[in-house]
Amino acid sequence: MATLLYRLGRFSFRNRGRVVAVWVLLLALMGAGAALFLGPSSDKFSMPGTESQRALDALARDFPQASGATGTIVLAAPEGAKLDPAAVAPVVKEAASVPGVVAAVDPFQARSVSPDGRYALITVQFSGTAEDLADETRDAYLKVGSTTTGMRIEHGGDVLRAAPEVGGSEAIGVLIAAVVLIITLGSLVAAGMTLLNALVGVGVGMGGLYALSGVVELTSVTPVLALMLGLAVGIDYSLFITSRYRQFLTEGLDREEAAGRATGTAGSAVVFAGATVVIALAGLFVAGIPFLTVMGLAAAGTVAVAVLVAITLLPAILAFAGEKVLPRRQRAGEAVAKEGFGYTWGRLVTKFGIPILLVGIAGLGALALPAQDLRLALPDTGSAAPGSPAREAYDLTSEGFGEGFNSRLIAVVTTKDAATTTALAGQAAQMIMQVPGVLAATPPQPNADGTTALVAIIPKNGPTSAETEQAVHDIRAKLATISGAEIAVTGATALGIDVSDKLGEAMPTYLLLVVGLSVLLLMLVFRSILVPVKAALGFLLTVGSTFGITVAIFQQGHLAGLFGVEQPGPLVSFLPILLIGILFGLAMDYEVFLVSRMREDFVHGDTPRQATINGMGHNARVVTAAALIMTSVFGGFVFMDDPIIKSMGFALAIGVLIDAFVVRMTLVPAVMSMLGRAAWWLPRWLDKILPDLDVEGEKLRHHLAEPAEREVTRV
Q1: Terminal CA-CA length for the chain
Q2: For the whole model, what pTM was predicted?
Q3: In the predicted model, is pLDDT for residue 163 greater than 60?
Q4: Could you tell me which residue ranges the SSD domain spans (predicted)?
């Protein structure tokens, strides 16, 4: 592998113009494809095989008029006054005239008026789904009642779903990354070149993703996740190869040879680090959830592009940059200190390995304690940005009717004939009313042929409350006793429960697949059994403490205001499996970067302890910069209003910090020094079976030494 990448690096260096031209052309083609074939994003959470999905499928089949997007217009009279039916009627008529609206129900006819007569709800039914509606339709809906005086009017409902906007606060992370690069590399050219290289990879990856959005349905979170990961790993991979290139230059190699060797050695680590991330993300398909599979594959694609850019485009850009990638002092010939803080830290950690290991494990274990209270749900409008129309409607509905009116569920009852449907749907409505957490259940509403009926359910508590979740379980348990009908309960809370259950079932298989494949891959890289096992165990510490901190802030509300969390509540259902997949891949990145250098020096004759110190000394500065860059990129997404992306960005940022600085740069060298030569032990029979990928570049060194040996022989 190292020899192949060495040749690729030299080829790209020599053919710099052609390589750059190919990537620029590819970037233009992907951009054009994105512009031509861009499709709409979707926030539909399809869950094949679950009760919620069966209910939604029945609605689409038997109640098409009720399967489209819905809107809720909330009206409130001034304090002490009551709503006048004559004043509300024009608002209902205006709502019904919005393009794409099937019906707008008068609250006085539907009895959706609060007991004190001050609040009312106008239900608006659209013909198409929220994803199908044009912006003009949403604008017209938001303008309903804008000229009405004497009452407060707010607009809510799933019709207002919109994709999160990217490009504002997220740029803060990129700016911080640029500053870290400048400080680390000591050269504006090197920093700019590294950042440019990553941006090209992100541009190609995102362009390809958007070009495919016309034929593949993407959720609004998918491009953001792909951007987040593609940018972070793109900068890190380029930084790692650039640092090794600069090291070879200072050792006296010519620029082409330095580029080849940097690509052969550091590039090998990049390829295998990227492979672990791709495996972890692509492995999300085992959950059997379509939107999660697409999300994982999209992010994996951008990571793969980042790897390709790092091992091809970067050597070409290095050729154009010349010696300007070096700091000015080095270009002037000034001596550079051979040892930095990494060596000091490495000696300290290897000397006090056992105490550091005990303190580190105890500390991370304490941080993981809040994870015991982890609760999962799908986000609701109660967590929307304060001041947004959806949040204002949610708060006004809760004020007038109680939070349960924002948690409405639907029971879909289907039989073979109208008479049976009427009887069993009525029985279902009565049984639902007996559930403790239910406030009301409406009389059954049959479809045209009477074979399917809907029972609307209003819980007593909010959409993501534990009481509403329990109510869903109790409703389903009671309705399961009714024979002769197919009954399914759906709604945001019910869908969230089904997502969590399905992900919980898939989690053991996912962990076995991802961790198993990655451990096998690391075994190929390091020719060791204990190093991959140690890497996996360290990851458990990372993910446990990350979940603990995230739960403490986003669910329990500790320091919530500091991170802009207006409404603490359950974490989004798919965050655990997504976070585990991404963090595992990124954790293995730092494992490969650090331990590959330890393995390289050990293979070339250093003692295990000295090899560990050398690995820290050579790569601690780069890994520190890489972790800060990745944290700043992820942290930039914490400033977004979307609760899913905010929690995801925070969890990834804190996870990278813990894994890089506590686990990989502290606990790993401590364990490696304690293991000694045993760290690199591999049974002979297994050594013969496993292919030698030569990540540490031992074969490359022999390959480079052969011409010199032949020349000596001829002389």
Answers
A1: 32
A2: 0.81
A3: no
A4: 173-320, 509-674
